[in-house]
């Protein structure tokens, strides 16, 4: 074991702080640098739409299955979308086998909130026959390897997979009240907004880390996630406790997030063009 490895094992806090004192992180990035991202779409052939996203060492896969369902009583003309995040024990020692944990549940709810607040989909366009049939999109997001910042990676995977979805064409016979599904002819889902999340770990009043790794998260004192649209407007802010932040710090976060929105969406469009 080298001297640095020994230092990291016995004094992880001191080891980590030695990098921050030099305005760097152990992985070589600056405090406000994002990790490289790789996006592929259409990676699950049995799904109506899918994607795989690798952000640093964090890797997630999103598969979207479409089923014909009965609409909710209060929204008879609206389809359904159900995001579900899975964090299995094999993706990190942090997670245990069994029912979904707090992080998986909160990330699923975060994605649901973003879908609504961003206006990503017009759910009436998923209606097949008012008060009878709608499309229900089950969006399963599985973390294959966890190294921090699940929220950002999961949202990228969801947005990319939705743009890859192809639904079977349908027709409804009014005379015999039968729904026909034409699997050989497909239609795209009309994605209307392209939200991008940018997460920051709060280490101290003067030090904040963009796109945190798992180590950054362990050393930090809370997180802030900003979700922006392509017009640079903020549609969602998520801060689950932790250190308070000043208005000036929040403004800095927004500036950094604006740059990332366009970078991420360009990467998604490039991946879609390669399918």
Radius of gyration: 21 Å
Structural class: alpha+beta
Low-confidence stretches: none
Sheet of most strands: 6 strands, mixed
Tell me the fraction of residues in β-strands, as a range.
Answer: 25-35%
Question: Please, how many helices?
Answer: 6
Task: Walk me through the structure.
- The chain is of the alpha+beta class and 275 residues long.
- It has 6 helices and 12 strands.
- The chain has helices at residues 3-10, 12-20, 102-118, 150-164, 214-219, 247-273, and strands at residues 37-41, 49-55, 58-69, 80-87, 127-129, 133-145, 166-173, 178-188, 196-202, 208-210, 223-228, 234-238.
- Strands 1, 2, 3, 4, 5 and 6 form a 6-stranded mixed beta sheet that branches. A 4-stranded antiparallel beta sheet has the order 10-9-11-12. A two-stranded antiparallel sheet has the order 7-8.
- Strand 5 and strand 6 form a beta hairpin.
- Helix 1 (3-10) crosses helix 2 and helix 4 (150-164) packs parallel to helix 6 (247-273).
- It is elongated.
Give the SSE layout.
Blueprint: H1 3-10, H2 12-20, E1 37-41, E2 49-55, E3 58-69, E4 80-87, H3 102-118, E5 127-129, E6 133-145, H4 150-164, E7 166-173, E8 178-188, E9 196-202, E10 208-210, H5 214-219, E11 223-228, E12 234-238, H6 247-273
Parallel strand pairs: 4-6
Antiparallel strand pairs: 1-2, 2-3, 3-6, 5-6, 7-8, 9-10, 9-11, 11-12
Helix pairs in contact: 1-2, 4-6
List keywords for this structure.
275 residues, alpha+beta
Give the gist of this structure.
The chain has helices spanning 3-10, 12-20, 102-118, 150-164, 214-219, 247-273, and strands at residues 37-41, 49-55, 58-69, 80-87, 127-129, 133-145, 166-173, 178-188, 196-202, 208-210, 223-228, 234-238. It has 275 residues and is of the alpha+beta class.
């Amino acid at each position: 074991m080298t001297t640095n490895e020994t230092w990291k094992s016995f004094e992880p806090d001191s080891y980590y702080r030695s990098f921050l004192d030099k305005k760097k992180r152990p992985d070589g990035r600056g405090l406000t640098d994002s990790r490289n991202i790789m996006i592929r779409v259409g990676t699950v052939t049995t799904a109506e739409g899918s994607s795989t996203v690798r952000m640093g060492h964090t890797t997630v896969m999103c598969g979207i299955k479409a089923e014909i369902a009965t609409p909710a009583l209060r929204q008879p003309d609206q389809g359904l979308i159900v995001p579900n995040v899975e964090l299995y024990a094999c993706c990190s020692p942090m997670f245990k086998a069994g029912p979904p944990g707090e992080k998986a549940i909160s990330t699923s709810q975060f994605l649901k909130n973003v879908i609504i607040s961003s206006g990503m989909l017009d759910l009436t366009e998923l209606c097949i026959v008012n008060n009878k049939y709608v499309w229900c999109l089950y969006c399963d997001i599985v973390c294959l390897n966890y190294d921090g910042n699940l929220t950002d990676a999961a949202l990228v995977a969801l947005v990319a997979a939705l743009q890859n979805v192809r639904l079977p064409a349908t027709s409804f016979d009014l005379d015999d009240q039968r729904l026909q599904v034409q699997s050989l002819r497909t239609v795209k889902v009309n994605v209307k907004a392209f939200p991008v999340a940018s997460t920051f770990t709060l280490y101290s009043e003067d030090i904040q880390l963009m796109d945190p790794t798992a180590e950054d998260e362990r050393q930090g004192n809370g997180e802030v996630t900003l979700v922006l649209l392509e017009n640079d407007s903020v549609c969602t802010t998520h801060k689950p406790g932790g250190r308070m932040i000043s208005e000036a710090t929040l403004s800095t976060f927004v500036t950094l997030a604006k740059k990332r929105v366009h970078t991420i969406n360009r990467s998604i469009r490039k991946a879609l063009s390669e399918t």
